[in-house]
Amino acid sequence: MSGTPGQPPNGDAAAVAQAAATAVAPGRPIVGLRAIDTGTGGRAWLVAFEGPAFLCMDDAGHPAASRTRACDIAQAALAAEIVEEAVDATALRAMRGAADGLAAAAAGVPPAAVEALSRAADHARALAEWREAPERGEASLIALDAAIGLQERAHAAYATFVSLTDPLAGRQGDLEADVLAALVAAEEAAAAAGLGASLGAMMGEGMAGIATAADEIAALHVTPLR
């Protein structure tokens, strides 16, 4: 985990925030700036400077006063970074091609398995659209919950597909070559899209690390925290 916020889309708000951060910590080169919506207290910003050093501030450019508020801002940014790195829109969209390929060569594959893979592809596409939306420039805990929900549905549908096609592994020699190729392609596409694992479980396991990294950011805050 880098602990460095990503750069949001260009815009007046980002420019104002950068100017405010420069006023708070003059002479420190800014290497990262991220808008944050923690769900409480309106929009905030996490700024990374060379050093490393950090600044958590509100939308008016006032530095966070408490360590608790700084950690809340940092945790939201770090959680967003993890989710966004785990969500590959291109790989998710490729699930549709894998599902269509299996449907076209479905001889010997349970219809329910074909339908489950199609559902996984639909949810994967919705998650890809989430990842590519312009508002991803702002790290939002509410938006992360939505992404985790979409990924969980895609993961569950793919898990159903796997359970329904597992019996085919014992009779691969009886399958047509195009069916076997389509099954392999589906497995490879799902692995690339991260559908074999639960994003929610991954985030749950990673929360301790996120909290530790947020504490490290707060310890390197350029203004005092009470």
What can you tell me about this protein's structure?
By secondary structure, the protein is of the alpha+beta class. Helix content is 59%, strand content 11%. It has seven helices and four strands. Strands 3-2-1-4 form a four-stranded mixed sheet, sandwiched between helices. The longest helix has 25 residues. The radius of gyration is 22 Å and the shape is elongated. The two termini are 26 Å apart. The N terminus is likely disordered.
Features:
226 residues, alpha+beta, four-stranded mixed β-sheet
Helix content: 55-70%
What is the number of helices? 7
The stretches of 5 or more residues where confidence is low (pLDDT under 50) are 1-10
Q: Compute the average pLDDT.
A: 92
| Total DSSP E strands | 4
Order of helices and strands: HEEEHHHEHHH
Distance between the termini: 26 Å
* Rounded Rg: 22 Å
> Which class of secondary structure composition applies to the elements?
alpha+beta
In this structure, how is the largest beta sheet organized? 4 strands, mixed
Shape: elongated
| Spatial strand arrangement across the major sheet | 3-2-1-4
Strand content: 5-15%
Write the layout of secondary structure elements.
Elements: H1 12-24, E1 30-37, E2 43-49, E3 53-58, H2 67-86, H3 89-104, H4 111-132, E4 138-140, H5 141-165, H6 177-193, H7 199-219
Parallel strand pairs: 1-4
Antiparallel strand pairs: 1-2, 2-3
